Amino acid sequence: MRKIILLFVFFGCLNTQAQQNNPFGLLIINDLQAYKASILIDKNKELVEIKKFIPNLKLDIRYASKNNFAKQAVYKQAKAFARLPVVESLSKVQNELNKLGLGLKIFDGYRPYSVTVKFFDIATDKSFVANPKDGSRHNRGCAIDLTLINLRTGKELEMPTPYDSFAPEAAADFKDLRQLVIQNRDLLRSTMEKNGFKVLTNEWWHFDFNGYKSFEIMDIPFENL
Fold first, then answer.
1. CA distance 162 to 204
2. What is the pLDDT of residue 18?
3. Is the pTM of this model over 0.70?
4. CA 123 to chain centre
């Protein structure tokens, strides 16, 4: 009976938000009560703080600083979140890389929908940002921006471009690169894809979780999670 009530709360909030708050009619969870109800119905909907689940990975949350393409901080906290199954898969990636003396550095995970709207307005090249009419995998807590580091030194392995570059070399299959750079990029890609992720074609650092369609678009800030 309790689960039925929670379902009414959850879908009632979603429908109201879609009609009142979004010009594209998207179903967006921006209500904390609806988010908590969704977790009680399905624990996999929880947005988990990645660093707490995988303590030995590194964070470089660019969007909590001005060191990003937007040149402004859009997060109040330098944290990264993702849905529970996403973080569990990332843990498998981290364990696999650790055996090679490597690890993950996270740039971004869950991104509130309102930030996606802001990015679309700011970006000069719209092909590198999600269109608000569709929402983003980041908004669903199912996309991760990341790179590889050397565990001993903590330094990033050389990749085709810096994070968030709009250059053509950022494409996941760009060929005109030094062999070492291609090896580093392909190691990241193969390890992620082996564990349930798919790379975004124009961003070597961006990986979508294969089950993203099962998760709603969210617009709840970090500080409320």
1. 10
2. 46
3. yes
4. 18
Question: How far apart are alpha carbons 6 and 13 in whole angstroms?
Answer: 11
Q: Quickly list H helices, the chain.
A: 2-21, 32-41, 50-53, 84-98, 113-122, 179-194
Cα separations in angstroms, 185 against 72, 148, 153, 181: 28, 9, 19, 6
Q: What is the pLDDT of residue 19?
A: 42
For residues 131 and 116, what is the distance between their CA atoms, to the nearest angstrom? 8
> pLDDT (tens digit, 9 = 90+) per residue, 21-36?
688 889 899 999 999 9
- Angstrom distance (rounded) from CA 164 to CA 29: 27
How many helices (H) does the chain have, and how many strands (E)?
6, 9
Count the Cβ atoms, other than its own, within 10 Å of residue 72: 11
Return d(Cα 129, Cα 131) in angstroms, integer: 7
